[in-house]
Design goal:
The complex is a heterodimer of chains A (87) and B (258). Chain A has one domain. Helix content of chain A is 75%, strand content 0%. Chain A is built from four helices and no strands. The longest helix of chain A is centred in the middle third of the chain and has 29 residues. The relative contact order of chain A is 0.13. Chain B has two domains: 94 residues, no CATH class; 124 residues, no CATH class. Chain B has a two-stranded antiparallel ribbon. In chain B, a hairpin with a 2-residue loop joins strand 1 and strand 2. The longest helix of chain B has 43 residues. Chain B starts with a helix and ends with a helix. The chains are: A mainly alpha (87), B mainly alpha (258). Chains A and B meet through helix 1, helix 2 and helix 3 of A and helix 2, helix 4, helix 5, helix 6 and helix 7 of B.
């Protein structure tokens, strides 16, 4: 499974046209698979803080979808706006 | 937000606590208790709704199966379910970020405080049981305790690794199917990582705590124990019983095979 993730990651978005889109989607996926679980566990263990997301799809998934749909700049903008509005 | 102002206020508070208790260790414990008690109202609603959400997961999955394609209908049905079971919608992302920043500031203040032997001319008494709180723990008791309590807490809160099945598997085009597959892979990877982290991080904490002043380790243990108690009253032992049963079974199997 790790290997599959790595292969997917290296191939990153063969369907996306631009390098920028590939890079941004790849980094978001890296966040989802590595940083996010680390942060979750770190926050729970060090502060007893349970981070929880009320959105479905989450902001990162949404951003990936938007980048695929509208291109990198617009997609990232939409993702950021949604993140900022979540309170 | 002026962080240095908050820093100073907290420092002053710690010094006052030290004046009252006459001991750095006791003042750290009192500080932890007071601060965490103040934070309870912030964290309690979230914990409650989290527990309810976990209980409701089967019903949510049912709703997803029914309204899989129609996202708006799914959202409406979810909202109705939440209303029926009296679940407050979770707090958003930004309040959570603010809370995290606050907790990190607290931690930093404590680290700064512990590395001092005097503050504004007030001499601090760093001796607490067998410890000199400004020095690392020589007997490795606090680091080990910190690791163990953190493991227990995370087992209570995070129920192992569940692969969230968020993506409906009804995509028509090949491209969409591929993208869904990738998302599933990422989710699976994340779940596996979380499970590994659950066991690796406490060990790392123990190793870090060996190097740190033992006052910091004391704070870690105290705040984690506080979280454990809080969590126990909210949700019970959670995943701990599961893992305990598993290990017991494992050892029983071993004794049988002998």
């Amino acid at each position: 499974m790790k290997r599959r993730f790595a292969i997917n990651f290296l191939r990153a978005e063969s369907s996306s046209p631009t390098l920028l889109a590939r890079a941004s989607i790849g980094s978001i996926q890296l966040y989802q698979a590595l940083l996010r679980p680390f942060l979750t566990v770190w926050l729970v263990q060090n502060f007893g803080f349970v981070s929880q997301c009320k959105q479905n799809p989450t902001c990162s998934q949404y951003t990936i979808h938007q980048i695929r749909k509208h291109g990198t700049i617009t997609g990232l903008k939409k993702g950021l706006i949604r993140f900022w509005n979540c309170r | 937000m002026n962080l240095s102002l908050i820093n100073n206020i907290l420092m002053e508070f710690l010094v006052q606590l030290h004046q009252i208790t006459g001991n750095l260790g006791l003042s750290i414990l009192a500080f932890t208790l007071v601060v965490r008690l103040l934070l309870v109202p912030l964290s309690l609603p979230g914990m409650k709704s989290q527990k309810k959400l976990r209980d409701l997961q089967p019903e949510l999955n049912k709703l997803k199966a029914i309204h899989g394609k129609d996202k708006k209908a799914l959202q409406l049905a979810q909202m109705e379910l939440y209303k029926k079971h009296n679940i407050n919608p979770l707090s958003g992302c930004l309040p959570q970020v603010v809370q995290i920043v606050l907790l990190i500031v607290l931690y930093q203040v404590l680290v700064a405080f512990v590395s001092k032997t005097e503050f504004n001319g007030v001499a601090l008494n760093p001796h607490f049981f067998w410890l000199n709180l400004t020095q690392p723990d020589k007997f490795f008791i606090l680091p080990v305790l910190a690791g163990i309590t953190q493991l227990i807490l995370s087992l209570m809160i995070l129920p192992g690794a569940e692969t969230p099945n968020l993506i409906p598997d009804d995509a028509k085009s090949k491209k969409l199917k591929e993208e869904n597959k990738k998302e599933e892979d990422t989710a699976e990877m994340a779940a596996a990582m979380q499970k590994q982290m659950l066991f690796i991080m406490p060990i790392m904490t123990a190793f870090i705590a060996v190097r740190f002043p033992s006052g910091v380790a004391l704070y870690w243990v105290a705040s984690t124990v506080f979280s454990i108690i809080q969590q126990y009253f909210m949700t019970g032992w959670g995943g701990v019983t599961l893992y305990l049963k598993r290990t017991l079974n494992f050892f029983q199997m071993k004794s049988f095979t002998k």
